[in-house]
Write a structure and sequence with these properties.
Helix content: 25-40%
Oligomer: single chain
Bound molecules: pyridoxal-5'-phosphate
Distance between the termini: 55 Å
Shape: globular
CATH superfamily of the largest domain: Alanine racemase
Number of strands: 17
Largest sheet: 9 strands, mixed
Radius of gyration: 23 Å
């Protein structure tokens, strides 16, 4: 499956005539199909996906997802303004931030976004520095009640959210400051491939909604199950069945919400990775080969274009364009040019024989790929391209130039 690409080597060479490597390219057809699949899995519910903007903060992508009915999950000023400028407004924005400065709360309130508070102290903070909204949500951190996973860590070690005890006081304090509409949020896992986790998360929130409604005498409008649905990075991994999650959550809704007269309760999610991750590719040209104690292939992309392998040791599948069907009888470290030895896309990876001039396709870069880019060593962030439904290619973010990089410098 992993070697099935939405373009051939010849397609890439044609694209490169106009758009030099390296670049990320996103598959619009696949993104739309997947977005519709998520909506269909929750068609039984009053459902809203808020795309986590940080995953792919590129206007054209946000607009495509908006057309599919998605809102935006923003966590910073830039992400709020991006949503605004893409025409995603009001309660189509979920502002899930932490350690938030007052000016960001102000902007979120100005846009009419749903405010999701990360701490109990943010209730007086918001009341003092901004205005207190009618609709308020809190992020729950279940602590030792739930296992986490590698990226987010154990909930009790994670900096996010309120404890179970704090939640009661937090909603009460919000009510005292004029809140009349309420939601509940959690996000405890990241890049998780087991569908049962998400059903368990829903059950946990549904149970909490029942308890808090009774304790506080308030009615909840929605729960937000967070993001964290994983994508299969390795060829042997299987994708999460979104229909299994939708059906599992529906059953839990029936028993935990509808049967207790707590409906209607809207179901929100704020996934990033699973929405765009598998549908983006980083394309890079092989410029050097070097054989010392190991075999190195030098490409014109670097960790500045895709940080995940260097930062988390994340596996990203790599295909050599036009050699998809050749045996993996060589072993390479495919490296970028940063002065950092973790600037490698693969380590000891079995791959077909690679030649200078080959094009490598690094998979699953559609989320947390370009957006995590940085400028260390003065490396410029690449362009982003969209492979459109009609097969044409659109430049949706130009590559940075040295002038961009030097724009903040003073040479006088
Ligand atoms: C990063 C993040 C998301 C999206 O996570 P994915 O793993 O990309 O689905 C959603 N909500 C919050 C609060 C986040 O920090």
């Amino acid at each position: 499956m992993k070697n099935q690409l939405p373009f051939t080597k010849e397609d890439l060479e044609t694209i490169i005539e106009k758009h030099p490597t390296p670049f990320h390219i996103y598959d619009e057809t696949a993104i739309r199909k997947n977005a519709r699949r998520l909506n269909a899995a929750f068609a039984w519910a009053d459902f809203q996906e808020y795309f986590a903007v940080k995953a792919t903060p590129t206007p054209r992508i946000l607009q495509i997802l908006k057309e599919e009915g998605f809102g935006a999950d923003a966590s910073s000023m830039a992400e709020l303004v991006l949503a605004e400028r893409c025409g995603i407004l009001g309660e189509k924005i979920m502002f899930t931030s932490n350690n938030t400065p007052a000016y960001e709360f102000d902007k979120a309130i100005e846009l009419g976004a749903i405010i999701n508070l990360d701490d109990i102290t943010h209730v007086p903070f918001l009341a003092e520095h901004c205005s207190f909204p009618e609709l308020i949500c809190f992020r729950y951190n279940p602590g030792p009640l739930r296992d986490g996973n590698a990226i987010i860590g154990k909930p009790e070690e994670a900096k996010y959210g309120l404890t179970r005890e704090q939640l009661v006081d937090a909603y009460r304090m919000a009510k005292e400051r004029g809140a009349t509409r309420f939601g509940l949020h959690t996000m405890v896992i990241s890049n998780e491939l087991d569908a049962t986790y998400f059903v368990e998360t829903a059950k946990m929130l549904f149970t909490l909604v029942a308890e808090l409604s009774a304790e506080l005498g308030i009615r909840f409008e929605f729960v937000n199950l967070g993001g964290g649905i994983g994508v299969p990075m390795k060829p042997e991994e299987e994708e999460v069945n979104l229909e299994t999650i939708g059906e599992g959550v529906r059953e839990a809704y029936e028993s935990h919400i509808a049967a207790k007269g707590l409906d209607p309760l809207a179901i929100f999610m704020e996934c990033g990775r699973v929405i765009t991750g598998p549908y983006g590719y980083l394309i890079s040209r092989v410029i050097h080969e070097k054989n010392i104690y190991k075999n190195y292939i030098g490409v014109d992309a670097s960790m500045a274009n895709l940080m995940r392998p260097g930062m988390y040791g994340a596996y990203h599948h790599l295909s050599v364009a036009g050699k998809e069907d050749q045996p993996n009888d060589m072993q390479y470290d495919v490296a970028g040019s940063l002065c950092e030895n973790n600037d490698k896309f693969t380590i000891d990876r079995p791959l077909p024989k690679i030649d200078i001039g080959d094009l490598v396709v690094i998979h699953d870069t559609g989320a947390h790929g370009h957006s995590m880019g940085f400028n260390y060593n003065g490396k410029l962030r690449s362009a982003e391209l969209l492979l459109k439904e009609d097969g044409s290619v659109e430049l949706i973010r130009r590559a940075e130039t040295l002038d961009d990089l030097f724009a903040t410098l003073d040479f006088s």
